[in-house]
Write a structure and sequence with these properties.
With 105 residues, the protein is of the alpha+beta class. Helix content is 17%, strand content 52%. The chain has a single domain, classed as Roll (Hypothetical upf0131 protein ytfp).
């Protein structure tokens, strides 16, 4: 199993059902030393507002989110779901868990 940290859209049960055809179990966690930045992404019907993780100069900045246990196949689906504005990177969370997170490309 892989660990995936989510701070946004993937926490939605509706999105999980569309993407994985199941809902995921999550555990709250935090990503320290990073912050969220506003991002506009062009979609089928225009521009949409999202947020993306970026490193912060302040090591006390914290992003609150959840960790999911996902399969390699699930992770491949998320790779396709996320736009090219995001890249998947490995991070250490406040809990000590090493997880994947999608950050600014």
């Amino acid at each position: 199993m892989e660990q995936l940290f989510s701070y946004g859209t993937l926490r939605s049960k509706e999105v999980q059902m569309r993407l994985f055809n199941k809902t995921l179990t999550s555990t709250p966690d935090q990503l320290l030393g990073y912050k969220l930045k506003s991002l506009k992404i062009e979609e089928e019907f225009g521009m949409a507002d999202y947020v993306v993780v970026v490193p912060s100069d302040n090591h006390e900045d914290t992003i609150h989110g959840v960790v999911f246990n996902v399969t390699t196949e699930d992770l491949a689906k998320v790779d396709l779901f996320e736009s090219n504005a995001y890249r998947r990177v490995s991070v250490k969370l406040n809990s000590g868990i090493t997880a994947w997170v999608y950050m600014e490309s």
